[in-house]
Amino acid sequence: MLQQLLTARGFAATADGIFGPGTERAVRRFQGDRVELVVDGVVGQRSWSAMVANSGTRYTTGRGPNLSGRVVLSYDDCPTSLAAFTTMVRAARDQGVALVLFPTGQCVSAGRVDVGYARSLGHYVFNHSVSHPDLTTLSASGVATQLGTPGVQGSYGRPPYGAYNTAVKDAYLAKGMRVWTWTLDTNDWQGPKSQAQVVSIARGAPAGATVLMHMQHAAFNPTALQQITSGLASRGIGVCRNQGVTTPARPTVLAC
């Protein structure tokens, strides 16, 4: 029955009565398509109920787990130093903003990002591979390695360059992660752009957007953050709020 339901919901599974790798992959695909479900490949009560009723909020890779009308300010890669990182995450907390950070594993290993510290200040930290390759060019084992340690382990991941295909998406799901990209790219790396240019683009984000910036470029500082949030506020748009508590490593929906 499970396999028949998976097929009916668009996640093809061979109806052979065996819960093998193909069926588990289909289960993970279904779970990854419903925001409220944990991607663990286990058909528990919540997954079964959602499958039978064909219910749940459909997941979109651009907006990710943000179901609110608030804007998510996200930063990729690696800051110039640990001091720059800690200054920014403290300032964001003080400004009431929850940042969403996607550092590479190499950056974590280099000691320029403190994952636990950022989470303790109410920010979200997710996977961005180990060394930032285009995952679509790698073998299955190569992708799996890039999604492992020292890369951040959690419930979401952003593939470098936003590049993914079905095989890459399945590799994320196998690690219990959904792919989360963005809806507004500031292109802060081009040129590179000045702080004023990046701030201007980010301030124009629509409600519910995920904005892409980078920790090593111009807008990863408290002044730029304040300018972005005040510009959005002037248009009646808020940013993801900092709840003042430690964020989990594997949230399903963001508490914005």
UniProtKB/TrEMBL annotation:
One GO MF annotation is: hydrolase activity, acting on carbon-nitrogen (but not peptide) bonds
What residue stretches are annotated with the Peptidoglycan binding-like domain?
2-51
The cross-references to Pfam families, in alphabetical order and at most eight, read: PG_binding_1, Polysacc_deac_1
Query: Which SUPFAM superfamilies does the UniProt entry name for this protein?
Result: Glycoside hydrolase/deacetylase, PGBD-like
A single Gene Ontology biological process assigned to it is: carbohydrate metabolic process
Using the record's annotation, list all stretches that form the NodB homology domain: 69-179
Q: Which domain of life is it from?
A: Bacteria
- The name of this protein is Polysaccharide deacetylase family protein
- State the organism named in the record: Propioniciclava coleopterorum
